[in-house]
Task: structure prediction
Amino acid sequence: MRPVLYVLSFIAVMGLAFWAYRENYATQHQLKEMGKLQDEIASLREALTLQRAEWAYLNRPGRLRDLATANFERLGLLPLEAAQFGAAAEVTYPVPSPAPEAVGEDVLPAITDPVEVSGEIEPAGSKVEGKEVP
Amino acid sequence: MIRTPLRPLARILSARQKGENPDSIERENLRLRHEAIRDRSRLRSEGRLLILGLGFLAAFCTIGARMGLLAATEPMEPRNAAPGAEITAQRADITDRNGRILATNMQTYALYAQPKDMVDPVRVSKELAAIFPELDAATLERRLTDGRSFMWIRKVMSPEQMQKVHEIGDPGLLFGPREMRLYPNGTLAAHVLGGTSFGAEGVQSAEVIGTAGIEKALDARLRDTSQAGTPLQLSLDLTLQASIEELLGTGMNMLNAKGAAAILMDVHTGEILTLASLPAFDPNDRPNPLVKGDAGDSPLFNRAVQGVYELGSTFKIFTVANALQLGLVTPESEIDANAPMRVGRFTIKEFQNKNYGPKLSVENIIVKSSNVGTANLAMLVGAERQAAFMKNIGLFDPTPVELVEAPGAKPIVPKKWPDITVMTTAYGHGIAASPMHLAAAYATIANGGVKVTPTLLRGGVPQNGPRIMSEQVAHDAVRMLRGVVQHGTATLADVPGYMVAGKTGTAEKPNKAGGYDTDKVVNTFASMFPANDPKYVLVVTLDEPVETTGDTPRRTAGWTAVPVAAEIIRRVAPLLGVRPQVEPAPLDGLTAVSN
Result:
């Protein structure tokens, strides 16, 4: 019985030693891999910071204003004005299409939700910064 | 163990026969036994001591070996820790209230030389001078060949320049990594941000320290490594700042002003949404302070915070609010306003020597901006109570704004308060404060009389300061200020829909001779909107403006600061999300009815 036990325990020790050896190298490999990844994260973070700075630089208000002015023909961007505020009730909903028999008759659909107008609203065509308002 | 008997019978008997004392045998045996016991126990103790000594030796050896190992090995980063909130930059970013970047860091390189390793200093200095225009080839060559072993050449450089230096290919030229502060918006909010410079410099890194503005005031917070990952959020709004700086700049140029400042503040939280001072500078390339002349002429000078001016008639509302608070008058009380008024050897006059008298209601004193009426009101209040009110509302102490310049901008306050001083300070002469003081004081009125402390940090909590005046008094004061815009000195500020309330102030600048220059004025318009429930305070100050579209040059705030402020409100109020309101028309006493 004893020799069997000796052999078995010897085999167990050898097995454990082999396992520990492999684990050691696997851990070292993982650590190396992690170091690489952390280096990569650091460089990506650095790039991110730089790109954020670049984004902020390209979106600086002065540049955007110049771009809006340069592309006025295409975009027609003007500063926001008080007259552009509206109430949700002022939004016109699509009028239901007229009944089939009414088509052809020259009748405007009934006003279901009258728009309430209040305050001073500059009439269209007034001068704003020397440019005609469409 | 066989024990030796103490009285062995054989020896006792033989001793008795010889006539000796048998007790001596017993004593002898007892002695021997004790000696044996003593030797045994000594041996045991010595053995124990030895083991203990060995134990200590082992412990000391282990500790010593560990210490030696730690001292001898290279330090290593703990690599197996997961990356948490790590430090990516040595200085925290600064953002506006919406998280848009105002200041950030950029990785760059410094250039230094080790002349001992240099192959051809003459060629290197020529090529460096070609890359960096500010370097002089001859000077550089002299310095590279005078036997020194180390020399800084550039603190920072662009990647293109770095590539060109690489291409010189001399082993004596070396690069050191640097973190550089970058302000992507250029001159925007320059006076708030201030600027940075390098502190202690090493080859591998350099310290970045704040030199002015919030960078210096909150230097410790920005450099705190535990908070390096969280940006410092300011109360400024980049969009508003850009719009206001643009409009203020246009106004300043049109009115030929030397400088201008504007402050937009939330009256409930005290957050400063815009702080503009023109002319501005680029914090990326901060100019040097002036060595001679007036520091106030330098673009580095923050007019909004450091510019301590006599702010003129804008102060009248404080006198009136104080008199109302003390219960001395009501808005309808009639006050003597007969101009000119003689006080000793001084004469108090109205603008353009007008006379609004003989009597003027308290409300009309503000609307017409009567110096004499305010002076008489101040006499009712008295010196002590006037000074106390001004102190309480914060006009005597530096503002607590988070800028390094703020504590230095102490208002100029009269030391003694004779009657004439009480009268002049009542309408803003003989007392000087910064536009920031004025904005905070007007915010206190707009906030229903509860003191507002201005701040540049985003907090967004309504302030719970001490109450300076009752809600009713604050309400009356706002109504009077609304009257100024409706039919007083600031009618140009009546922006439709926004119910602006405010007060103009025109103060002549003191000259070196001790008098006042009539053609050099500081014009101020302190306003709040919307008047029915004030949310924002806007203070616009122009330094030496002149309006020249009329026949005679006009220098009153109503013609200079007011239109600029009106344009700012027109542009900025929609951006703030303030809905335009229709003001209720004053009710007529009679209604025509017909049937």
Strands of chain A lie at 127-128, 131-132. DSSP finds three helices and two strands in chain A. Chain A touches chain B through 31 residues (CB under 8 Å).
